[in-house]
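hey so i finally got around to running the thing on that chain from the lab meeting. sorry it took forever, my laptop kept dying and i had to restart like 3 times. anyway pasting the input first so we r on the same page abt which one it is
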Amino acid sequence: MRPRPKLSHTRGSALIAVMWLIAILALASMAAIRMIYFDVDLSASQIHGFRARQMAEMGIAVASNPAVKRTDPLLHQMSEESGEGFEARLISEGEKFNINALLLKQDEQFFKSLFIDWGLTLDEAQAMTDALIDWVDTNDEAGLNGAESKWYLDQGRLNQPFNHPFYNLDEMRFVKGMDYIEALKPDWRNWFTIWSSGQLDLNEAPAELIAAAAECTVEEANIIPETVRGPDGVRETDDDAPFQQLEAALTLLGVDTNARPDIAARMTVNDATQRIESIGTVSGAKRKITVIVRNRTGRPAVLERTEEIVP
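ok and heres what got predicted. didnt touch it at all, straight out
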């Protein structure tokens, strides 16, 4: 008699193979579903990002209107139903010091006074001032404590200094000694701009910067923003009293223009350069557009435009 085949063993092997096949197909299906979800999320994110950019553009368009003021409610628009909207701001570039204008005039006294207030010694302040001037001047002759191409080459840095005005504030970090400034004054960027007309706008600047320009105390400089805000102490209201003539502001500060013409040359009123910042929001996606405009209320000229993703 012939032996009967071991059917149970064969069937058990087949069952295991089928179970493995089902497991592999399940994993493949899960991976495919995850990829589909990823593609859907990516597409939705791109759509929301594009729409957020459109909302930011709307904010720029509204803020660019010369009739719109900084406190205008039109600058803040958000739909609770759709979750779409924008928030725009108008900021004067004249509220900061124009670093290029001060360096091209070689206003050494201003920089030394400022750096000493920030914690540098007199010798360190002089060296930092010389290094900044050397960076923007067109020659290769180092100041007494400055740095030209030889010093930067010794540090392994080719083609520096650039010997032209700063194109952006981050470029200032390349200058000899700026690492020390950054350690002492991490917010130094809040003091400078490259876009204003040149002088500090006393109608816009905070008391701390006015004090640095006028070489007086912050308490003495505070009379300027207090006067501009008017009796109610709030800016952009009907009782505002911005200065129309620089001489009136200098008189309040006690600046003798004959004795210190250099101080008067640092300041102005009614600078026409403004920064427009607009953040568009759609379903959690945010896009920010920044435009620097000169003469917004006259013949506007766009000086710079940047876009970025806001986390």
